[in-house]
Amino acid sequence: MENHGPYLVAALYHFARFADYEAFRAPLLAKAEENGIKGTLLLAAEGINGTIAGTPEGIANVLAFIRARPEFAALEHKESHASKMPFYRMKVRLKKEIVTMGVEAIDPLKTVGTYVDPKDWNDLISDPDTIVIDTRNDYETAIGTFKGAVDPHTKTFREFPRWVAENKGLHNKPKVAMYCTGGIRCEKASAYMKEQGFEEVYHLKGGILKYLEEVPEEESLWDGACFVFDERVSVTHGLKEGEHELCHACRQPITPEDKLSPLFEEGVSCPHCHDQYSEADRQRFRERQHQIVLAKARGERHIGA
Fold it and tell me: Residues in domain Rhodanese (predicted)?
């Protein structure tokens, strides 16, 4: 893949039996900081998940440290690049789940759908016997999705089980194919679907990121950009940085066209959220934005940015 910036970004996750995950937090954080790495890693009894960024050497050192654990020896990661550091600090958090669905006993190590490589994904989702489901949240699907995919319009991944229960028509086709950003949500969702009695369940290996990396744009069935959880906001084919930014009032991705709207005010409102806030709210946001601009002029980062 062509290098599109000096910072290497590594997205990773791995489901594993990891009983002593709490003890791994401090040494992992120390190793990341020692190598100048920033980002967020989540640790739980079910494994590890997160995205980190830094120099190629620093990323390699941290990944080697993680893979030295027998639980994570087979850990895979996805690489992309960023023109500037996409994170502000390094965090290692302890969680109940590495991706929160909120359903007890869903275990991808016990029951899970079938992985589908990006090169085979087009054939699967073009099959009329397949229903294609986007397992991401509404603000992610709003800027890009696979053609013909069903959008659950969920606000959080916790809502996915209820959406499945309320949509009995999902059983009308024999095959269910699911996808998400990096693969972790659709892997857990596939385990849930199997538990619910769906027999032919598939999920995109490596997620949208791997698809955009490996499938040529002229052959792609992806439409739009892919939301990412860092300061790049979105990536496109070839994992090039997209044109989206975040509205710092509502945290929704916005396009250059959105910024031309009379409802857009930097750090205060955008077309997505202008009607959600009172004038008092917007005045508070204006003061925050003013402080952010002043901090930037001093070469600092305001804590509220």
Answer: 126-220
d(CA 123, CA 258): 35
Tokens of 193: 């679907």
Model confidence pLDDT, tens digit, residues 130-147: 999 999 999 999 999 999
Residue 155 and residue 106: Cα distance in Å, rounded?
A: 20
247 among known catalytic residues: no
Which is the catalytic residue, given 180, 186, 226, 273? 180
Q: What one-letter code names the amino acid at 114? A: T
> pLDDT tens digit string along 43-92?
999 999 999 999 999 999 999 999 999 999 999 999 999 999 999 999 99
Token pair recorded at residue 5: 């910036």
Domains (ranges, CATH) in the chain? Answer: 7-94 (3.30.70.100), 114-224 (3.40.250.10), 253-298 (no CATH)
CB burial class (10 A; 0-12, 13-18, 19+) of residue 127? Answer: middle
